Amino acid sequence: MAGKQASAKADSHRVFGQPRKQSKMFRAGLYARVSTNDQQTIPLQIRALREYTARRGWTVAMQVKEIGSGASARELREQIVEAARRRDIDVVLVWRLDRWGRSVADLLATLQELDHLGVGFVSLTEALDLTTPAGRAMAALLAVFAEFERDILRERVRAGLAHARRNGKRLGRPATAALHADQVRKLYRTNVSKAEIARRLRIGRTSVRRILATYFSPK
Fold first, then answer.
1. Which CATH class is domain 26-144?
2. What is the pLDDT of residue 79?
3. E-strand spans in 54-138?
4. Three-class SS of residue 170?
5. CA distances from 147 to 151, 152, 173 (A)
């Protein structure tokens, strides 16, 4: 019986299968984010983050709530990052990875900075815990897959450009202003100002001046 109690006590000190550190009271920074149309889930996120913090025996040093849409800039998230830089927190807690990172590249960049600062990171939904060896190994795999994805995209772009050149396609931005060269010269010969030419043809004044300098020589 005593052995079972000891075993149960030992299991209670494990999170994600890793031993819980009891020697240090971690200061946690909680970050919750929702879209503009989903603001009611903020209390759910905060409650889950606080419950997890309590189970780990950590203290809540700061709490940030942010409302935004899609891949918009996470301005309030910077408060958490700044606290990590000041060493005011030891670990960052989020509900889900997409709440923290705008993209895979942004996610990995911030995780790498936190790792460099010696600040842990936990995402509850994905059970990603960078305070443990298993979590850090998972983050390393994410970085590998992200780089693999970038390499594939670069190869596809190069292949597409090469294919377009072989088929005689002109690459780069279309010369839209140059299509109006004849009209620009005709209007200029009738004493229409450069600004008025640009307005009528809906092209930039710089384009008008460039066309006139290239094609028109005053008599």
1. alpha beta
2. 92
3. 59-67, 91-94, 120-123, 128-129
4. coil
5. 6, 9, 29
pTM listed for this prediction: 0.55
Domain spans, the chain? 26-144, 177-215
CB 84 within 8 A of CB 92: yes
Percent of all residues in the chain with a pLDDT value above 90, rounded to a whole number:
23
Q: How far apart are CA 194 and CA 119, in angstroms?
A: 59
- Report the C-alpha dihedral over residues 171, 172, 175, 176, rounded to 10 degrees: 110
Q: Within 13 Å and on the Cβ side, how many CA atoms surround 160? A: 7
Residues recognised as catalytic: 35
Interatomic CA distance for residues 72 and 171, integer angstroms: 31
Using a pLDDT cut of 70, give the percent of the chain over it.
Answer: 74
| Residues linked to residue 134 through DSSP beta bridges, in sequence order | none
Chain-centroid distance of CA 202 in Å reads 36
- Cα dihedral 43, 33, 67, 37, rounded to 10, equals -70
Q: Where are the beta strands (DSSP E) in 14-155?
A: 14-15, 18-19, 27-34, 59-67, 91-94, 120-123, 128-129
Angle value at C-alpha 171, between 167 and 177, nearest 5 degrees: 130
**Joined tokens for residue 67:** 């409302």
Q: CA-CA distance, 167 to 159, in Å (whole number)?
A: 12
Question: What is the distance in angstroms between the CA of the first residue and the CA of the last residue of the chain?
Answer: 109
Count Cα atoms within 13 angstroms, Cβ side, for 30: 23
Which range has highest mean pLDDT (88-92, 147-151, 190-194, 210-214)?
Answer: 88-92
